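in:
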């Protein structure tokens, strides 16, 4: 598509403030050119015992030292091998998780005129949009989203949409508490003091995306999320029963099958950087679907939306003559600039920071 025509199409789409759901509601049978992706030749493999992400049970880790040691070892293995793992008995009730998924669905399927009031690309505590990088990505993805910034500056209740306000605050506050525990386990998995990652600022910033992936008339031509790695410290993902999330592992795509009571944890690029490649940030994607609408709630630990001059580099306690630093120090702000201007979200982000 000619650039001027593409920009015109993007602007016309954005100005509707109706997102991808607006296209579906209009009854389209062919997706617009801006959503068509180049074909991915990477092969997919079926799940088996060695291509399924670990499932880690957090039960009794506060009371039983041996149970905690087993969990820490499982977290270490999963973080080094897959960069992804499921957790159960994490302390967030299944009923709360169910209500949060319903909240994402209800927000996106409410009256369009009410929803449009939240549509913006200007930084706010709560933002609704379609494709946050719409104007600087090579192709658009088949999803609509809302963004809720929770920390270090929490939103005021009146900033949040009434239809999902209460569950947003309840669920995300619980995920923030869970994040503190996860960073303790990750610190211990690195052989460090349990508070190490928290103390250097890994839990300071926290935000979440409510993702809505409508049915797609031509799912083979587009995707819900292109191949990418998360430019954060850590991601906590709540996905519904529909499926479609895939992980790139050993140059093959594997399905991450939904488990109703589980949350998905994945290592972000920033955690790979500060652990000097000990923990791995894995590429993943979301497929489009012709049969069902999919929702998810992705919560991220990073100060991306509250930039600071604080810099991060490989943790000195992990370095030695045999394991020298592989990355230079960088700030979250600099990292984000590279992510949005050079990587387009699809190429290896960490490459730009290697020594």
């Amino acid at each position: 598509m000619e650039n001027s025509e593409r920009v015109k199409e993007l602007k016309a789409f954005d100005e509707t403030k109706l997102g991808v759901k607006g296209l579906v509601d209009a009854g389209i049978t062919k997706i617009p050119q801006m959503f068509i992706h180049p074909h991915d030749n990477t092969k997919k493999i079926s799940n088996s015992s060695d291509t399924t992400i670990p499932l880690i049970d957090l039960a009794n880790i506060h009371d039983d030292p041996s149970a905690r040691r087993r969990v820490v070892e499982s977290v270490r293995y999963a973080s080094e091998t897959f960069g992804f793992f499921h957790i159960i008995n994490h302390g967030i009730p299944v009923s709360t998780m169910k209500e949060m998924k319903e909240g994402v669905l209800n927000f996106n399927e409410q009256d369009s005129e009410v929803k449009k009031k939240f549509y913006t690309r200007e930084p706010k505590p709560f933002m609704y949009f379609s494709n946050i990088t719409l104007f600087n990505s090579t192709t658009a993805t088949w999803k609509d989203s809302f963004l809720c910034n929770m920390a270090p500056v929490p939103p005021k209740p009146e900033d949040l949409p009434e239809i999902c306000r209460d569950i947003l605050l309840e669920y995300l506050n619980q995920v923030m508490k869970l994040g503190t525990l996860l960073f303790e386990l990750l610190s211990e998995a690195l052989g460090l003091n349990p508070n190490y990652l928290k103390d250097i600022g890994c839990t300071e910033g926290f935000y979440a995306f409510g993702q809505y992936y409508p049915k797609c008339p031509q799912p083979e031509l587009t995707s819900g999320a292109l191949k990418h790695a998360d430019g954060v410290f850590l991601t906590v993902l709540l996905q519904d029963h529909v499926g479609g999330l895939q992980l790139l592992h050993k140059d093959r795509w594997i399905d991450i099958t939904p488990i109703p009571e589980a949350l998905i944890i994945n290592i972000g690029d920033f955690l790979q950087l500060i652990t000097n490649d000990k923990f791995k940030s894995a590429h993943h994607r979301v497929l489009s679907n012709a049969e069902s609408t999919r929702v998810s709630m992705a919560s991220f630990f990073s100060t991306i939306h509250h930039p600071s001059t604080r810099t991060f580099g490989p943790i000195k306690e992990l370095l030695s003559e045999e394991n020298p630093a592989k990355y230079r120090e960088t700030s979250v702000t600099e990292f984000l600039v590279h992510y949005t201007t050079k990587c387009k979200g699809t190429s290896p982000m960490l490459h730009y920071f290697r020594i």
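note: The mean pLDDT is 93.
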